[in-house]
Amino acid sequence: MKNSFELIYEVVRKIPRGSVATYGQVAFLAGNPKWSRVVGYALHVNPDPSTIPCHRVVNRFGEPSQAFVFGGVNRQIELLQSEGVELTDGRVDLSRYLWDGII
After folding, report:
1. What is d(CA 42, CA 11) in angstroms, rounded to the nearest whole number?
2. Which residues are bridge partners to 3 per DSSP?
3. Is 102 inside a domain boundary?
4. How many domains does the chain have?
5. Contact, 30 vs 11, CB < 8 A?
6. Is 101 a domain residue?
7. Would you say residue 103 lies in a domain?
8. What is the span of the domain harbouring residue 87?
9. Of 12, 42, 54, 85, catalytic
10. Where are the alpha helices (DSSP H) in the chain?
11. Which of 77, 101, 103, 102 is nearest to 89 (CA)?
12. Predicted confidence band of residue 103 (pLDDT cuts 50, 70, 90)
């Protein structure tokens, strides 16, 4: 049986380039809508950021993580922008960039 982090990483791997998901959305798709904080913990110790694109996960307001472990919040913003995701006043427009969750 897979542990919670493995389930979370499976979901995050599926977020398409140019889209974002929220912590709560990842938690729900991983099997437990109460895992939002667990998603944060899992992404903080992401063993392979090159294949688990944790930069595509934002909070429910579309804000990047102030604690983005792979180079800080500015690096997360750079990675999102390099994929065509625009931020306005430090937020991603979820009505435009939120992944539909179809996996």
Report:
1. 12
2. none
3. no
4. 1
5. yes
6. no
7. no
8. 4-96
9. 54
10. 4-13, 23-30, 36-44, 72-82, 94-97
11. 77
12. low
pLDDT digits (tens, 9 = 90+) for 42-99: 999 999 999 999 999 999 999 999 888 888 889 999 999 999 999 999 999 999 999 9
Token pair for residue 91? 């937020």
Domain-located, residue 39: yes
How many Cβ atoms sit within 10 Å of the Cβ of residue 67? 11
Count CB-CB contacts under 10 A for residue 6. 11
Tokens of 92: 């991603």
Long-range contacts of 22-31 (CB under 8 A, 24+ apart): 22/57, 22/58, 22/59, 22/60, 22/94, 22/98, 23/57, 23/58, 23/59, 23/60, 24/60, 25/98, 25/99, 25/101, 26/57, 29/101, 29/103, 30/4, 31/7
Q: Is 83 a catalytic residue?
A: no
Task: Give the relative orientation of helices 36-44 and 23-30 as an angle to the nearest 10 degrees.
Answer: 100
CATH of the domain at 55: 1.10.10.10
Cα–chain-centroid distance for residue 66?
13
